[in-house]
Amino acid sequence: MNGSEDRESGGSKFSVRHRSEFLYSDWIIGNANTLHLEPRDFLFQKTLGSVVKVLPATRLIRFSDLFGNITHVYEIATQHKRMVVESQLKVINLPLYIPNEGYSGGMDFYNSPEIKDRCWEYLQDSRSITLSPDLWKQAVDVTHSEDAVFEKAAAIMRWINAEFSYEPGVTDAETHANTSFELRKGVCQDFAHVMLGMCRTLGIPARYASGYIYTGGKNALIGAQASHAWCEIYLPETGWIGFDPTNAVLADDRYIKVAVGRDYEDVAPVRGAFRGVASCTMNIEVSVELQ
């Protein structure tokens, strides 16, 4: 990667600013939200600092959820017509490394009771993903010639990238994976959901990852203009490794991960509800810089 590198660790330092502004058409109260905007440490990624701010000012409660994600919750009880949520974070990413066993390991790795227990929730249906016969048939067709888990996942990733069209506005945050599969179009969230479903039908543990991509200002990767989503596979003798079907690449040191879960529902950057009859307009700004 071009740019400054931390010599001691051999990694690259990034800063991210994510600002969401919510404008309401009338006064509202009781605006309660859950945030996933502060990353914990992950394999190949360490958080150096993070600040989360909300206006109107209110008390944030910080905790780790069931998936280990750092989570903030809050409520704005007073009347307001505008809310701003902003996070600023700094991380250092190490170069992606996959051992030989990660590339060559087969499906028998998942027969271990320990691995089954560790990955159980990432093999099941979830709110946005149903392990349907159609997903299974397609997954089998795409991967029938591959034995290694890595190659199976890579084949699914490449198939989605080739067969699906990236079209914002066709789907939304509530779109189910089966709908995206039928449409063959959508955005990064939809691509990730379909890959999760196809992998899980084969018995490959797969989880949803959300975060950002650094592209050096060139936007060479789709999804770099806002928050991004990709799929992570629990590779044999390796751990969780990201596969990005939107761009058909592995999630390497350009990817800044914030939260993981079964699907988008578990990791939404901002999710909540308010009391009132107002409509809401949202403006989002994301910047990712190499330090």
Low-confidence stretches: 1-8
Radius of gyration: 19 Å
Helix content: 10-25%
- Give the CA-based shape: globular
CATH topology of the largest domain: C8orf32 fold
Structural class: alpha+beta
Largest sheet: 7 strands, antiparallel
The total count of helices amounts to 7
| CATH class division of the largest domain | Alpha Beta
Terminal-residue CA separation? 12 Å
Total strand segments: 14
Bin the strand percentage. Answer: 35-45%
**Which whole number gives the mean pLDDT?**
94
Q: What can you see in these coordinates?
A:
A hairpin with a 5-residue loop joins strand 3 (61-64) and strand 4. The protein is an alpha+beta fold. It folds into two domains: 12-93 and 268-290, Immunoglobulin-like, CATH 2.60.40.2250; 100-266, C8orf32 fold, CATH 3.10.620. The protein is globular. The longest helix is centred in the middle third of the chain and has 15 residues, at 149-163. Helix 4 (149-163) packs antiparallel against helix 6 and helix 5 (177-183) crosses helix 6. The relative contact order is 0.23. It contains seven helices and 14 strands. The strands form three sheets. Strands 1, 2, 3, 4, 5, 13 and 14 form a seven-stranded antiparallel sheet that branches. It has helices spanning 100-104, 113-119, 133-143, 149-163, 177-183, 188-201, 264-267; strands spanning 12-38, 45-55, 61-64, 70-76, 80-93, 165-166, 185-186, 206-213, 228-235, 239-244, 249-250, 255-261, 270-275, 280-290.
